[in-house]
Each structure stands twice: as structure tokens, then as C-alpha cells.
Fold this protein.
Amino acid sequence: MKCAQELHGRILDIGAGEGHYTSYLRGEVVSLDPDFENLSKVLSTKVVGSAEGLPFPDNTFDAIWSCAVLEHVKKNYIPNAIRVTKPGGIIYILTPNRNSLYDPIKRLFGFGDWWSNEGHVRLYAAHELRKYGKIWGEVWWAPGLDQVARVFPFLGHTLMLRIEVSAQLKARFVFDDRL
């Protein structure tokens, strides 16, 4: 969880659930989840809400952590995450790779693929996320392949997106969808 440990300041944990990553985050954590029951175990500030309509003013957070959430929402919330992050802030988003080469192998051996996971409504490929920032692939269960996927993201089973928020990025992707 080196990525999570890099974050500091006021941090939004999107899809915090029961707070599994809170201990890795270094700063004032705000945990967002649509399920109040999940948040009952979280020790940080709790906000019941949706990633699709982040209920925060512009430039509220220094950083955002979002692990295994993007694939569960119909609307891409990345522009909204950029909106609520201050310029100079960092956003990390981990999501399954829609084009994972491992899914056909898993199906061959009777295991489910990313589409069969409960609640997955939209999957992304590396090329779709690259426009927001740096992306690398991960194959956490195969260390040798993991190093290759970091260089060639399309080979990853999951994708990690690192967004460095700037004024230029905000101007490019943030729009006021509340109108």
C-alpha cells in the first residue's frame, strides 16, 4: 500500500466501506460510502454519499484514495474527483482491467472474471484512463508479471491510475454538472 501511504493532508477515501485502507492513509481522512452500515466501523469522519455525486465543494481535499469503486458506478466520477481535489493534489484509483488477459484463463479453470463479480457495472481499459494521468497495471498474485504490467499496463489484471491534479487538468475535465 505504498500508494496510499504517499497521500497526506485532508484525504477523501471514496468507497471506504469498513475502512480497510484508513490505517495506510496519513492525514485527516474523510470516509465516503453509500452504506451507513459499512461506515459504522470507520473511526474517521464519515459521510454517507455516492461517488457519482461527490457532496463536497471544489478544492476540498489534498488527496483522494479510491480502491475498487470505479467499476461499481455507472457514471465515471473521475472528473468530479478532480473537482474536489486541490491543485497540487494526488488521486489514486484502483480498478479492474476490462481487457485483462487473465480473465479468459480464469474462466477456463471455472473461476469468474471481472464481469461476473457482483456489482460491477462498468469496466475500463488502460487507454481510457490514461487521459487523466499515469497508469500502470498490477498482477499482485504473480510478482514477475507484476513488474512487466507496471511497464505495459494493458497486461495488468488491475489498473492503478495516479492523477496529479493541476489547474490545467481541472480546466480540461471539470464541468459543472449541477446545472
